[in-house]
Amino acid sequence: MTTSETGLFELPQTYRDLQAQARELAVSMRDIAARADESSSTDPDVRKRLAASGLTELAVPAQWGGRFEKVDSLAVTIVREQLAAESAHLDSMFVMQGIGSYGLAVAGSDAVRDRWLPKVATLDAMAALGLTEPHVGSDLKALTTTVVADGDELVLNGHKSFITNGGDADFYSILAKEGDGYSLVLVPADTPGVSTHRPHQIIAPHVLSDVVLENVRVPADHRIGEAGKGFGLVLATLATFRVSVAGASVGMAEAALRLALEHANNRQQFGTSLSRLGSVPEHLASCWTDIEAARSLTYRAAAASARDPRANLHLSSMAKVSATEMCGRVVDRCVQIMGRFGITRDTAIERLYRESRPMRIYEGSTEVIFDSLAKQLIKNGI
């Protein structure tokens, strides 16, 4: 990447190629996106097409079949921007391969990594991360799931809730209390004592499940990293993937603007197109401006995260908040522009309206992120 005025603010060719590949895949999903996005379980056609694209190779380091030496936040972010514009189901399936396996790639035992990570890269195995519990959300240190060493095995007991890919995943990276610390443990889904059920669904249907662990025994080498050091791996995962939520939000907002613009240009009211009537032109221009501002911060944060995720978590957090809040405003404004056509069930804009809302909550709600940013700012300054 050059430092010329033109090159400085452009994506390098490698990322532009990825962007084009992701866009091609996303557009190819239009015939099944509406069905998949209303599903509570993995859509087999989406999985087949995503696997064939090879994009899940971005979820793991090159050593286990990935495209980059290490997981690249910018690559994941720009791919999510394209996928989320067409299908939330596709977007979630893609990113969870990385979120569910990142701790394993960073700190897992060689034998366990060699077994699972090549399958993650090809989507032959689906990954999941088990953090939240029925009464535990942002305050993860209050979790009650436990892991105890018993000879050459680890024994887990607990109840995880609202787990993405739950019920369909082939393995779970489970955060559990171990002694005075918290450990991350890989639990294959077919391990005796693991059960799943689906008591909840959200306004934008998602592959979600509760995961119950009853005297689940796994080999000791399934502990990921050191005993009691699991929080560091969770933070590393967030540092790498949080900014990609911003990318998905930018993609969704832009998709909504395209729909609103098409409607406004083609809708005739009071002798002129809606796009030239009253406050509608201002709304359209405001949406466009907000999207481009969020994209700029998102790309900057993603590039910084690709260099050093932990050192640039503050930028990833800012981008996540900025883009998800922007997405909510823009999609709502686009619904307003489209009037009754914007609130009609089973339309693309209605789906985007529902899908945009959870973005401000998962992987750190706006309020929790602002609290963390404020603490960092007060302590260290700018």
Please give the number of β-strands: 10
The helix tally amounts to: 12
Number of separate structural domains: 3
What is the 3D form? globular
Rg: 21 Å
CATH topology of the largest domain: Butyryl-CoA Dehydrogenase, subunit A, domain 3
Percent of residues in β-strands: 15-25%
The CATH class of the largest domain, by name, is Mainly Alpha
Q: List SSEs in N-to-C order.
A: HHHHHHHEEEEEEEEHEEHHHH
The class by helix and strand makeup works out as alpha+beta
Domain Acyl-CoA dehydrogenase/oxidase N-terminal: 15-122
InterPro entries: Acyl-CoA_dehydrogenase, Acyl-CoA_Oxase/DH_mid-dom, Acyl-CoA_Oxase/DH_mid-dom_sf, AcylCo_DH-like_C, AcylCo_DH/oxidase_C, AcylCoA_DH/ox_N, AcylCoA_DH/ox_N_sf, AcylCoA_DH/oxidase_NM_dom_sf
Keywords: FAD, Flavoprotein, Oxidoreductase
Pfam family, one: Acyl-CoA_dh_1
Strand-helix topology:
Layout: H1 5-8, H2 13-28, H3 33-36, H4 44-53, H5 73-84, H6 88-107, H7 110-122, E1 127-130, E2 146-150, E3 153-164, E4 171-178, E5 181-188, E6 194-197, E7 208-219, E8 223-224, H8 230-266, E9 268-269, E10 272-273, H9 280-307, H10 313-338, H11 348-356, H12 366-380
Parallel strand pairs: 1-4
Antiparallel strand pairs: 2-3, 3-7, 4-5, 5-8, 6-7, 9-10
